[in-house]
Amino acid sequence: MLWRLFASVFWVYASTKHAYLFFCHFLKFCSKIMCFLFTFYYQMRYNSLYYNKIFIIKSFVIQIYLKFHFAYKLFIKPLSDNIHNNNINRAEISIFLQEKLVKQVRWGIDIVVRKNAKILIEQALLELLIEQPLDHIDVQDVAQKAGLSRQTFYYNFKNKHDLLCWILEQDIAMATEAFRAGGEMYDYIKAALNMMKEKAVFYRSIAASEQRRRSYINYFENGLLDCAKIVENRSTLGRMSTQLWDSLQFFTYGASGMMQNWVENGMQQTPAQVAEVIICNMPITVARYFQNSMDKISAK
Predict the structure, then answer these.
(1) Which CATH superfamily is domain 119-156 in?
(2) pTM as predicted
């Protein structure tokens, strides 16, 4: 109805074919803005924990331009040509606006939702955990909270356990990226603890479950070892000796124990404080290997 009213008003005040051409370009511009804002809203709300915001803006400007460039060629451009050649009347314009453009907007929304389904499902689970324990939440509850169907949930995840593992994997992956960017084990630990702090309700629920408690600990420990392997592969000092690797594993178990204690006791200290304490207790031989390796890499 809104498109029909707008078209009628525009017909009254500007009946020349040049005005209609302007109107078509105006619709193209408005469609770009609407779709971008809708997509940007979901990404900034649910994905800002994972990605740099400037990167999100740049990538979606490019995506929205490409999508609506093709939409313009398929729909807006033919309309403009018909208007220019006087092959379309007022009724046809109203039908086009009501059916074609609305259909394209709905199609665009569906695309955005499908691409961000996992993020929407994760956010729905986090919101549900505020209201009830993890064991009382089923797939139907999560899908309904996210505004999606059960089929969409199962298209993205095998079951609820698969969803929990995906969240843990994403968090540790982002912490590993922080290590790659900073080059210090402190960066990984601090980033991992920051993710836990921001999703405190999720990690407390995992820690409270006897069956799932070990899962987030394993992911944290494996992330530490992966960071060490990254240093090994890039270092000119060679691979760690067996003794050095055993010391690293000992440190990993201690770090995960401190992390678990921090989570279960309410996360009272800041992630930076806990990360500093963990790093201060790293074995000297391991710390020296990391420092020398990173110095060699930086010298390159």
Answers:
(1) Homeodomain-like (1.10.10.60)
(2) 0.64
